Amino acid sequence: MIPVKGHPNLYRDEQSGAIINCDNNSYIQYKNSLQNRELQKNEIDTMKKDIDEIKSLLKELINGSK
After folding, report:
1. Does residue 45 lie in a domain region?
2. Shortest CA distance to 19 belongs to which of 43, 37, 1, 42?
3. Residue 4, in any domain of the structure
4. Is residue 10 part of a domain?
5. Which of 11, 60, 64, 66 has the smallest number of Cβ neighbours within 10 A?
Protein backbone atom coordinates (compact mmCIF):
# COMPACT_ATOMS: atom_id res chain seq x y z
CA MET A 1 0.00 0.00 0.00
CA ILE A 2 1.22 3.47 -0.87
CA PRO A 3 0.87 6.30 1.71
CA VAL A 4 -1.15 9.32 0.53
CA LYS A 5 0.84 12.56 0.90
CA GLY A 6 -0.49 14.88 3.60
CA HIS A 7 -2.80 12.25 5.08
CA PRO A 8 -1.11 10.01 7.64
CA ASN A 9 -3.96 7.49 7.88
CA LEU A 10 -4.77 7.14 4.18
CA TYR A 11 -3.19 4.60 1.84
CA ARG A 12 -3.71 3.76 -1.83
CA ASP A 13 -4.16 0.13 -2.79
CA GLU A 14 -1.63 -0.70 -5.49
CA GLN A 15 -3.89 -3.08 -7.39
CA SER A 16 -7.27 -1.34 -7.34
CA GLY A 17 -6.15 2.27 -6.78
CA ALA A 18 -8.67 2.61 -3.97
CA ILE A 19 -7.96 4.93 -1.06
CA ILE A 20 -8.09 3.08 2.26
CA ASN A 21 -8.47 4.75 5.65
CA CYS A 22 -6.42 2.91 8.28
CA ASP A 23 -7.42 5.12 11.24
CA ASN A 24 -8.69 2.54 13.75
CA ASN A 25 -9.48 5.14 16.45
CA SER A 26 -11.89 7.01 14.17
CA TYR A 27 -13.52 3.74 13.15
CA ILE A 28 -14.02 2.76 16.80
CA GLN A 29 -15.50 6.19 17.55
CA TYR A 30 -17.85 5.81 14.59
CA LYS A 31 -19.00 2.38 15.72
CA ASN A 32 -19.53 3.67 19.28
CA SER A 33 -21.58 6.60 18.01
CA LEU A 34 -23.81 4.20 16.04
CA GLN A 35 -24.28 2.05 19.14
CA ASN A 36 -25.08 5.11 21.29
CA ARG A 37 -27.60 6.31 18.72
CA GLU A 38 -29.32 2.90 18.75
CA LEU A 39 -29.42 2.89 22.57
CA GLN A 40 -30.98 6.37 22.58
CA LYS A 41 -33.56 5.29 20.00
CA ASN A 42 -34.50 2.26 22.10
CA GLU A 43 -34.77 4.42 25.23
CA ILE A 44 -37.03 6.90 23.44
CA ASP A 45 -39.22 4.08 22.13
CA THR A 46 -39.54 2.68 25.65
CA MET A 47 -40.48 6.11 27.01
CA LYS A 48 -43.13 6.52 24.30
CA LYS A 49 -44.66 3.16 25.23
CA ASP A 50 -44.64 4.13 28.92
CA ILE A 51 -46.35 7.44 28.16
CA ASP A 52 -49.01 5.67 26.08
CA GLU A 53 -49.63 3.26 28.96
CA ILE A 54 -49.92 6.13 31.45
CA LYS A 55 -52.36 7.93 29.15
CA SER A 56 -54.43 4.78 28.83
CA LEU A 57 -54.52 4.28 32.60
CA LEU A 58 -55.52 7.90 33.16
CA LYS A 59 -58.35 7.58 30.64
CA GLU A 60 -59.56 4.42 32.42
CA LEU A 61 -59.42 6.22 35.77
CA ILE A 62 -61.36 9.21 34.46
CA ASN A 63 -64.00 7.10 32.68
CA GLY A 64 -64.37 4.75 35.64
CA SER A 65 -65.04 7.54 38.15
CA LYS A 66 -68.04 8.96 36.27
Report:
1. yes
2. 1
3. no
4. no
5. 66
